[in-house]
Amino acid sequence: MAKGLQGCLCTMLLLLCAMQELGCWAMHTVGQGPGEPGDPALLAGGRVKRGWVWNQFFVVEEYTGTEPLYVGKIHSDSDEGDGSIKYTISGEGAGTIFLIDEITGDIHATERLDREQKTFYTLRAQARDRQTDQLLEPESEFIIKVQDINDSEPRFLEGPYIGSVAELSPVGTSVMQVMASDADDPTYGSSARVVYSVLEGEQHFTVDSKTGVIRTAVADLDRETQDRYEVVIRATDMAGQLGGLSGSTTVTIVVTDVNDNPPRFPQKMYQFSIVETAPVGTAIGRVKAEDSDVGENTDMTYQVKDEEGVEMFKVTTDSNTQEAVITVQKPLDYESKKVHTVVVEALNKFVDPRFVDLGTFRDQTIVRVSVLDVDEPPEFRPPSNLLEVQEDAHVGSVVGVVTALDPDTANHPVRYAIDRSTDAERIFDIDAKTGAIVTGKVLDRETAGWHNITVLAMEADNHSQVSRASLRIRILDVNDNPPELATPYEAAVCEDAKPGQLIQTISVVDRDEPQSGHRFYFTLAPEATNNHHFSLLDIQDNTAAVHTQRVGFNRQEQDVYLLPILVVDSGPPALSSTGTLTIRVCGCDSTGAIQSCNSTAYVVSATLSPGALIALLVCVLILVVLVLLILTLKRHHKSHLTSEEDEDMRDNVIKYNDEGGGEQDTEAYDMSALRSLYDFSEIKAGDGGGGPGEGAPGRNPSSELHALPQWVQSPDLDFSVFRDYICRKVEQADEDLSVPPYDSFQTYAFEGSDSPVPSLSSINTWSSGSEQDFSYLGAWGPRFRQLAALYAGRRGGEDSEES
Q1: CA separation for the pair 247, 244 (Å, rounded)
Q2: Each residue's pLDDT tens digit, 233-269
Q3: 796: phi then psi, degrees, rounded to nearest 5
Q4: 69-73 vs 106-109, strand pairing mode
């Protein structure tokens, strides 16, 4: 410890000497104004040069004394010590942090300073004459530096720290780097020199003292044992010497996984059971191998190792749960084998070659599958589905026998039936006990050569257990149809034909299909033995040729020849038929082309030329147009008659919506239009009992009354015409819903409160018994004179009729 103290003292002495050497310097400034000290003119006159004299200023941070801390002195070389010079300072902290003695120039610090907050202060000094306040020295700038002490501990500013390292990593594997910072002055002493060390976790990790790199200290880090470590790292300044400050941080180190653990089945044997009727693909169960690793290191695949298991079962891997799913690959049979043993192996997908020496990364287990017995339907044996029967087999003949057995241990008896939806005509029957299929109707291969039926087999005491088998029954052919000519042959021969000329090649058809193929023989029928006109040649390929045997034919003598031909098949048994060839004698040109025959089939073509078709279509079109025109004219004539009978009264309504010219204007409107439909008889002037124009010179009373609305009812008018017309129109409107309502009914119930006269309505004046007096109309002035004359005349006529 003495050696340590001695070293510290030596270091401090060296620092003080260096400070003295750096601070002992003189600074001279020359004023810029005339007459000031330092002026060149004054210097030329022999005056002495003046200037500031001081050392560099330092102040120690974190001073805790009670008295102001002495910083230093500023001094002018012109100061003679008589107090005539006044010293002042200005700038950062002047007057607050730093105070100056005006007489001596001593500067003191009055506050506690912190170099980490501010490292130096810049101030300016002045020297003035105390009496005149005149500058004796020019203003000069100086700096007070804050001297550092070790008062800041190292800090980890980038925490919290989280690192990772793979398990089983070798010693010295770099994990991560930590770094601490010290706010002290790195250029002064060792206050900012930091070294690192491990406080906790040193048994597993180390740290580089200078760089702060954390490394593994052991090679057996095992994630499965411990997957996380909390390591405390300490940083100490003063290069770790005594008295240095320190700070610490906690580093979380996560151990990542590697595939160092093989899969292991928790059990060495698993047992499952499944019914024997389970369909292929049914899942039997699941097994899972455990793996202590995590992530993709736990991914594994499963497989069946034994031959029996590979044949009967299939193993797949569930990618989500990493389980082995065991499914049925072939149908199971309790009666054949009740228990199956399957060896299932699990192995990792991704194997790290670095850890192969740790062992095989796979494991096996045994799975026992018990097959459960169920009541199964009968099974058909053998499964052949083709039967054959001759078409001439008698009803009740046995076609074949189907056999079905109950696969269960009980071996129940089996009953058989035919699914009638596949044999609706009941062509076949089956013996319910023996399974013998027999014919139920006469067979005909030419009608149906194949039959597809479904046979049902069921337990005798449990008909719900049903099996189905599809059978194909082929009807074998027998020769039961004679051959026939392929078509009703008709041939033509020219009148000038020569002997040996080919007339027709004939062929035959046979509905039978013998296994060895058809072979037909052609001869002339016995009734044609006396024929000397034509000959028949069998070509030996199931066809025959007809040739002429004479020179020339005469249509006048005979125009048609009928040649009977006998056709025989090869059997067995051999069947035959006779067909007739019709030969017509025709006239031919020099090239042998037929020109005319007695049959229209050889004269006129059955098809019409395009021109004839167009002409026929034009005629049909003209006829259609004429018919439509006639119908249109008839309909138009009928509608014209109807419109004359049922003329719409709306067309004869004349609306007057302006005021007339008074009684002098009798020609403004032709009122005869209102009477054109009603055939009014001419009303005489005297019939009305005097009109409004009586006594007027130059007026014709009859024409004047004709031009005005006549309200006098004529005795010979028959209003039944109007009544019938209106009733007919109402009926038509009621029946036809598409006609808009032409009639309208309006009610005028309010005349106004300022009308000086009563209503002018003449609705009630048509009744013969009206007692209304219209004499007051005469008092309304000359505009109503004619109206008063009309109504007065009507009133007088009624009185005369009553008398």
Answers
A1: 10
A2: 999 988 888 878 889 999 999 999 998 888 999 999 9
A3: -65, -35
A4: antiparallel
